[in-house]
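Hi all, posting the design record for the shared folder.

TITLE: backbone redesign
STEP: 1 of 1
STRUCTURE INPUT:
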């Protein structure tokens, strides 16, 4: 509630007055989900792997465009006693990602022995771990998207058919280079600030 008030430039009481509850605010935040869906629907690529990585990138764009707000929101997601978790980690969100993985399987990207539901669960666990590390400051904003992409590429590489490993290896190496560059840039900046 405090982050929302700061974001809007109003007093802490204003969000309560306008929305009535934190749950109502979460529902309003889900407007970003609709914007995400709109942006994703305009993706032209039919490559099933590209669609998965584009979805990750679009999500990261939202988080990095308003980090204070989204760090607060993800903090609420990690609070198991808060209804925000159920609102954000909802069946529609799961169905979206399951659909992307199912499409990849239908295109022959995944080996048939891989359980697609478990794969989605592992990808989501990775995503939440990356978000937690970002919230607590263990991942720099410059490295956030590349860290998520690298994790997805590593997991998918283990689940993919041999002919798809080459493109995933390229993604792994590109993401790795981006993470290392972001961390080096951050280390240089920290050294300059402490000098």
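Okay, here is what came back for every position:
SEQUENCE:
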């Amino acid at each position: 509630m405090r982050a929302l008030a700061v974001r809007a430039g109003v007093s802490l009481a204003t969000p309560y007055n306008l929305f009535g509850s934190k749950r109502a605010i979460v529902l309003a935040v889900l407007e970003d989900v609709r914007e995400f869906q709109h942006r994703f629907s305009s993706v032209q690529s039919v490559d099933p792997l590209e669609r998965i990585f584009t979805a990750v990138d679009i999500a990261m764009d939202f988080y990095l465009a308003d980090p204070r707000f989204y760090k607060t929101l993800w903090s609420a997601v990690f609070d198991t006693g808060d209804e925000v978790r159920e609102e954000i980690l909802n069946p529609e969100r799961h169905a979206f990602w399951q659909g992307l993985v199912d499409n990849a399987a239908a295109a022959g990207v995944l080996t048939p022995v891989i359980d697609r539901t478990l794969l989605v669960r592992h990808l989501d666990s990775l995503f939440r771990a990356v978000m937690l590390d970002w919230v607590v400051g263990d991942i720099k904003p410059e490295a956030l998207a590349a860290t998520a992409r690298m994790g997805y590429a590593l997991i998918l590489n283990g689940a993919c058919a041999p002919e798809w490993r080459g493109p995933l290896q390229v993604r792994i190496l590109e993401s790795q280079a981006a993470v290392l560059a972001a961390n080096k840039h951050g280390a240089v900046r920290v050294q300059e600030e402490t000098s």
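COMMENT: The longest helix spans residues 165-194.
Let me know if anyone wants the other runs.
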